[in-house]
Structure formats: C-alpha cells, structure tokens
Amino acid sequence: MKANDLLGIGELARRTGLSVSAIRFYENKGLVEPMRTGGNQRRFLRSDIRRLSFILIAQNLGLSLAEIEEAMKGLPQGRTPNASDWKRISAAIRQRIDAQIARLEKIREDLDGCIGCGCLSLKKCALYNACDKWGESGKGPRVLR
Amino acid sequence: MKANDLLGIGELARRTGLSVSAIRFYENKGLVEPMRTGGNQRRFLRSDIRRLSFILIAQNLGLSLAEIEEAMKGLPQGRTPNASDWKRISAAIRQRIDAQIARLEKIREDLDGCIGCGCLSLKKCALYNACDKWGESGKGPRVLR
DNA sequence: CCTTGACCTCAACTTAGCTTGAGGTTGCAT
DNA sequence: ATGCAACCTCAAGCTAAGTTGAGGTCAAGG
Is B99 on the interface with A (CB under 8 A)? Predict the structure, then answer.
C-alpha cells in the first residue's frame, strides 16, 4: 500500500463532490498539479482533497478562481497548509465577508426606510429615488453604479 | 411640448447611467416595452427611468434579470408603481437580503472558529475539514454544495 | 435640401466557470 | 489475455449579462 496514498481523478471527485471535468478544469487553471502515471493518468495527493475543498469554500464566499489562485500562492502542492498560511488567507476572506455583510445591512436599512416611507412616489427614498432628483432638474446626470 | 414627455434611448441612457446597448438588451428580455416612432425609433415613458433604476437596484441586491422580470410582473408599463407594488417586491427582496446576511454570518462564525483553533490540521474545523471526516472513513461520500 | 449625430437590426464576441461529446488509451480483475 | 470501466485530450457548447461592429436609416438644425 504505497500507491494507495494517491487518488485517481474519479476518487477525488467523489471525495470532494466536484465533477471530474471541474477538477480537470482546475488543473488547467493551475489550481492543482497532480502527478501522472506512466500511462498519463492523473494521480492526486490526499492533501488535494483539502485543496479542492478550500476552493469550494472560497468560491462560496464569492471569490473568483483567479482570486483563489492568488490566495493559494504560497500553499505548496505537497504540504498541508499550516496555521499561518491559513491565518493569512482567512484574514483576507474575513475582510471580504465583513464588507459584504456591511453592504447588505446598509441596503437593508435603506430598504426598510423605503417601505416605511411609502416610497416610489416620494423624494426621500434613498434607494429608489436617487435618479428622480436629478431627472427632474433639467438635463439629468447619471445615476447609480 | 407633448412629445417632450417621451425619451429617446440615448436620453434614457444618460438619465439612468445604463448604456444604450444594455437598454436594448433589457427590452429584448421584456423588461421595458418602449413605443416606436414612425421611423422605428424607441420612445420611452418618463416612468421607464424608474423602471430601469429599479432593475439596477435589484441587480445590486443580487437578483438575476430573470428574477427581476418575475418580480416586475404586475408593474404595468404605463403606471408608476404604487406603494403596494413596492411593498410586495421589497418584501421579497428583504427576505433575500436577510438570508444572505445570515449565510455570511454563519460562515464568518465558522471561519473565526477556524482561525482560533489552529485549523487545517484538526478535526474540529467546521469549514475546512468537513471532507476529511468522510475521506477517512473508507469510501467517502460527497462534500459541500 | 442636406448633413450629421443619434438611431436601427442582427450577428458575433466577451468572461467565468464549467459541461458535453468525439475519438482514443489505460489499468485492473478475471 | 481480455474485457470494460475509468481515464485521456481537444474542441465545442452553455448561461448570464452585456458589448462591439457592420451596414443602413432617421430626424432635426442650418
């Protein structure tokens, strides 16, 4: 039991919940770098289960594959990422989460104000009427975004 | 000044901040239904400024155009949406926001637990190790998602 | 009347993140 | 030795939400 430490792509797919094609796609993007057998079949390290799970998590948090790749610089293929790797990455992710939550809460507040105020016909709705204020005063400038 | 109540697509673009091509695209999707001049040029109602702004807001909240279209069923083209229209729509949006915030907060919690616990090498990390637990007990099932 | 900028349609291209298919090879159990 | 599931590559297709370009028309001011 030595080659037993290595996983075929199908096995890895089952372990991570990813599709085989997605894993190949990730390899293409440089997110994993499996070895090959003599017959050119991929053989993954067990630690790649974690690597891929990490990708799933990060994606779930709204990171693009490019950003994930960026974050993974410094996580060597063979080594299980250690606490300080994790600290660095998770701090960055944490920031993103905080920012997203803050943004949503701001919107929720505005929205609540809107519901309360009868809105859509009034000037004070922060969310909806931003445009009207301008549209009414002659040649209106642009709105939002 | 009677045709002055109608807007050309360029004017509408300037008022909403959208590109002309985006507005045409939205028309294609059925999100606005401008009239046409004899020469086939689009003429929009002033209320379409709001309609499009609404689309921008909803998109900002993470709704897809398909979902927005769904939500806009019942907002007639010619009429300025009233308070109860708004109530209905904003309640739906509000739910989404709440759900998103809850999801992010859950993730943040897990993440914090992770940072604290040294993680990545331990069994107790909710975020990261979900897979390992399974991977270790024989034929592991799928993970996440 | 004529010019010119705004407008028209339709098709093809873009990015992200994959999936699907065709056509061929490997590796393991019998 | 052989069967066949799992694997390989490469190209094309898909969805979302638009953008870009070609080729042509409209409308309004001078």
Answer: no
Contact between chains at A17 and B145 (C-beta distance less than 8 A): yes
Nearest to B93 by CA among B57, B48, B65: B57
The distance of Cα A57 from the centroid of its chain, to the nearest Å, equals 7
Long-range contacts of A40-46 (CB under 8 A, 24+ apart): A41/A8, A41/A9, A42/A8, A42/A9, A43/A3, A43/A6, A43/A7, A43/A8, A44/A6, A44/A7, A44/A8, A44/A9, A44/A12, A45/A5, A45/A6, A45/A7, A45/A77, A45/A78, A46/A5, A46/A6, A46/A7, A46/B135
Return the exposure string of A61-83: e unless at least 16 CB atoms fall within 10 Å of the residue's CB, then b: bebeeebbeebbeebeeeeebee
Is B74 in the A-facing interface, judged by CB distances under 8 Å? no
Q: How far apart are the first and last CA of chain B?
A: 58
Q: What is the residue-level pLDDT of chain B in tens, covering all 145 positions?
A: 444 689 999 999 999 999 999 999 999 999 999 999 999 999 999 989 888 988 887 787 778 899 888 888 766 655 555 666 667 777 777 887 888 888 788 878 877 765 554 444 333 454 544 333 333 322 333 233 2
Contact B135 A60 (CB under 8 A): no
Phi, psi of A84 (to 5 degrees): -80, -30
Question: Residue A3: what pLDDT?
Answer: 44
* B84/B80 Cα distance (integer angstroms): 11
C-beta of residue B3 within 8 angstroms of C-beta of residue B44: no
- 0.70 surpassed by pTM: yes
pLDDT digits (tens, 9 = 90+) for B28-47: 999 999 999 999 999 999 98
| Distant-in-sequence, close-in-space partners of A51: CB < 8 Å, separation ≥ 6 | A31, A32, A72, A75, A77
